[in-house]
Backbone:
């Protein structure tokens, strides 16, 4: 086994171990809502009927008005694509640039190897 393969295998095992540990720890937190006190289907169909007076600041403004302002299907979509749209577009551009750069680097190495064999 080559040194690179060994390093890749160690990294994969480490990432898998961290993922399993995170799932175990997260499972111990329990549900994020009380299912016997909340009817999620009813809240999704009529979000304005639920009391959210305990919220304050930005959370209150987003929960109370974002569905009317954005016409989004849910709060998460409204925040990601409407309020933070340019940020999401920038992150997508950075990801595309990183993938393109990796492709160029790996393709040039492959080309050098093929030229060396001839």
Residues:
């Amino acid at each position: 086994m080559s040194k690179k393969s060994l390093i890749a295998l160690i990294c994969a095992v480490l990432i898998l171990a961290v993922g399993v540990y995170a799932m175990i720890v997260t499972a111990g937190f329990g549900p994020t809502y009380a299912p016997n006190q909340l009817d999620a289907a009813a809240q999704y169909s009529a979000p304005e009927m639920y009391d959210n007076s305990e919220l304050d600041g930005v959370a209150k403004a987003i929960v109370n008005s974002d569905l009317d302002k954005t016409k989004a299907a849910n709060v998460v979509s409204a925040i990601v694509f409407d309020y933070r749209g340019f940020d999401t577009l920038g992150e997508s551009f950075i990801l595309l640039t990183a993938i393109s750069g990796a492709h160029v680097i790996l393709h040039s190495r492959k080309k050098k190897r093929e030229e060396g064999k001839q």
